[in-house]
Structures are given as C-alpha cells and as structure tokens.
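To assess whether the prediction recovers the assembly geometry, we first specified each molecular entity separately, as shown.
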Amino acid sequence: MSEELQEDDRIFLEQAFTLAEEALNQDEVPVGCVFVVDGEEIGRGRNRVNETGDPTRHAEMVAVTEIWSKYGEESNNLLKKSVLYVSLEPCIMCSSAMYQLGIRKMVYGAENPRFGGVRSVGSAEKYREENNIEIVAGVWAERSVGMLKAFYEKQNPFAPPEKRKTKTPKLWSTTRPFCSVITWTTKSPLSTLAVLQRKTSAVNVLSIRQLNKKPSRSDKSADQKNYTYYVMSLVIVAIGCTFAAIPAYRIFCEQTSFGGLTQVAKDFDKIANMKKCEDRLIRVQFNSDVPSSMRWEFKPQQHEIFVHPGETALAFYTARNPTDKPIIGISSYNLTPFQAAYYFNKIQCFCFEEQILNPGEQVDLPVFFYIDPDYVNDPALEYLDSILLSYTFFEAKSGLKLPDPFDPKNRPSIAPSPDKVPEKSN
Ligand SMILES: [Zn+2]
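The predicted structure of the complete assembly is given in tokenized form:
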C-alpha cells in the first residue's frame, strides 16, 4: 500500500519517526507525529501515556493540544489545511478525531491491524464522516514495526527469544493500550461496533477442531476398530458438549439477565436513535478477578466511567500472560446491583470466548456498552447512580464447568427492594 513520497513528505515523516524513537527511549509506545500546513510545521507530538498516566495522550492528541495552545481559535482553520505525518496508522480514537477535525491528508508508517482507525478497523464511513482525508498508507512500514517490536520485547522479559520470533504475524496481539477509555456519543455506536467486531475477531479463539485432532492408530481387527471409533466419538461429543455448555449458558443468561448478567444489544436502529438522558449520570465501576489457579494478570484499564443512560461507552480490560507457557482463558461477568442489569446492554464484549495468550503476551479486551434510557423510569433505580461491572477470567480446560444456571442454589435474589440493594454478587 506504500506510495511514492515527495521530498517534503520524506522530511516530515522522518521527523515523526524521530519523535517515535524518542518515545521508545522513554518506554512509551513508539509513535510520533508532525502536523504541517503549506510546508511548515504547526505542531508535533509523541506518545506520553506512561509519563502522564493519561491513556489519551497519544502522539496525535499531544500535537493537537499543542496546536490549540499555540494558535487558539485559528487552530480549526489550520488543522483543516494540515497534513499529518505519523509513524503508525492512528488508532480509532485519534482517527475519529482527525476525521472530525477534517484534516486534509495523512501520511503514515505501518498499518495498525488491531487498532488502526483509518483503514484497518475504522474508516470515515464508520465514523459517519463525509469528509474524506487523502491517505498515504504503509510508508516505511518495516521501520515502524521494528520500533514497535523493540518496544514490546523490552516489555516482555519473560518471552523466550525463539518463541517470540514465531509470533511475528501476531505482533498486534501484544499491543498495549492504543485506545483506552473513550466515551462515544450516540452519534457513532454502529461505527464503534464495526470497529470492535473486527478488532475482537483478531483475538485468538481456540477451535474445537484442534481438540479433536486425535489420530486413530488402531490397526487391530475391524471390531476393535469400530469399538475405538465408537469410544472416540463419545469422547468428542463429550468435549463438544463441554464447549457447547458455555454458549448455552451465555444465551440463557443474556435472555434472562440471570445472575446479574446484562442484556446483549441487538437492535442497532434503537441504539443509533436512542436519546441520551442528560439529567442522570451513572457511574460504572469496573472490577476484575482471577481465581488463584489462573496465572494471567487481568485488570480494567479504567476504574470507572461516567455515562448517561442512552449514551454508548467503550472501556477496556487488559490481560497478560506473564508465564512461559501458553494459557487459554475464558471469562464470565456480572453486574451489581442485579436490578440495573436489565438496563445494562453490551453491544460487544469478550466474555465467554476463549482467548489464548502466548508467553508474555498481552491483549486489550474491549467492552462496548450502553445503559438503556428506560433506566431513569424504573422507580427501583431512582437513587441508584453507581453500578459495578465485574469480570472473572478462568483458565479454560476441557473439564471447566461454569455455574449451572438451572441449579436453584445459584439463583440470585433479583426482586427490586427499595431499601436494600445487594452489595456484591456471587
Ligand atoms: Zn491514538
């Protein structure tokens, strides 16, 4: 996708890469950028996420802030004429911002297959922006990827070198937060959904086929052979049932909000047209748990988000495998208090899907959700402005059993009770 560069382009892109190198030396994700108008630089930035502790301090955002402080109101006009040179395809957050600012052109290094918001997972169409930016993509990709590799290798002291080499195509599985907490307006939930669907499809989901790959080595009599096949098919069916139990449990719980499980949003027209309830602001807190037998590090990237009912929001969890063995994980979740679960809708999340993490590997796991505007009409929730979303990651094994939702002793009390709200589920 690389295109011929003009001499001017080369000079400015070189500066963006120099800034990316500076970021790398400061243990930041190596991304740098320069904004240029009529051959003159108006602002520059590099990633400052770790330095500031602010997950939105991406190179592009840092540069835009600098431009605004330098040029004030004039910035809007300047940015509309500007060319952005950046060492890596801007993430979803930054790309969306660039489209809304209406910059003229973008020249970037490597594609960012998991988070790239220009072409890889996002696009102007998905942000519902008519404005089209001229794009020169995939320039000096190797150099950009080289820096990212250097960064992740620094961050992954546990990964044995020979194993890391085999993971080259999956560089993006180890991506640190390019996008951490974004509260989207209801304007673009569908675009965000599309982004997330593609994004999460990149996450490894173990195929049942892998489990069934047991070669038959029966070379005895035909009867014995048949018997072996019979037993094997039973084993396969049993394994299949174990896996089918998970989607079945999910379907049951999602249909019923059972156990504080939230609703899964399917009516996208409704989402696109729902009205934000400005006068209620709900605090959504995030919690993560791993049982002691699970060796992943798993935590939310934000402790809380404030969201109006009728507004979509995006949050992320991070999971990392610090061990030297691949581990498969699977998560379940619940929401407390249970009453609120009826109104909590997940448009996309990572629960109930198996994820495999290689040694030292880290992934960002998105939760894209909204609270139904009807929340404000439920008298039981009149004084409830704080909810807790909790995910637990288990190590997935063929014998793994999630709690049986039909077992009466697992049945939570979901009756609304105005004077007493359950503290914690499970
Ligand atoms: Zn970004």
